[in-house]
User: What shape does this take?
Amino acid sequence: MSDITGDAHTKQLLLSRAVAMLSLLIIPILATAFASEPTVATFSIVALDPETGEIGVAVQSKIVAVGAIVPYVKAGVGAVATQSLANPRFGPVGLAMLERGATPQKCVDQFRQGDPGIERRQVGILSAQGVAATFTGLGCLDWAGGKTGENYCVQGNILTGQAVIDAMAKAFEETEGTLAERMLASLEAGQTVGGDKRGRQSAALIIERKGWGYAGGNDRFRDLRVDEHETPIAELRRVYLAHRQLFPRPDETQE
Assistant: This one.
């Protein structure tokens, strides 16, 4: 019994050291201001279905092609939404840290230490275990903030008010159905109470699950984007419904 306990302790120690080493390595990687890029005025949800293992990000913004900037997902590992004056390195670095055993809060703490532009950033991070963390820098434009809950986090900036985040959280918690449907309902609820006060332009939904990608050849189950549209969330739902008909969940005959 003591040998088993010792082995577990050794593995945990090695894992902790690996995370610490990775944390030291990413500081110079994160230390870029990206000051010339436009602010990604956005609201997003990062969420997990613990029963199916699906994990993903849904997002809407007043910027073209938000799906190319904000969401990062890796099946069995976690998901990241990076926004406001977005640091795109938060996505791959956060996923790498999660994969090596870091918590979402540890990722946020490291980002705050390593990025000089952190006070203009916003990020939401969720692990495959359902643990969430969200951060909003003091320099993000009003209204800006976030909220965490069981298996999700929501965040947004340049919103009409806190009601947007509260409505998103409530809709996700109370909506039944697939993860995609619950995430879309969250975006719709946020938009209904005001959303991004600058307006609407693009939206995206990305969900991964081990082996659920096309023909079982990868993990990217839903990768849907509306890059330029007057009502991007409504259009994203239309695209999702079409995609669902062609690609139902593998564990069901039809979603």
In short: The beta strands are 42-49, 54-61, 71-74, 78-84, 121-127, 132-136, 145-149, 152-156, 202-208, 220-226. The chain has one domain: 2-246. The longest helix spans residues 2-30.
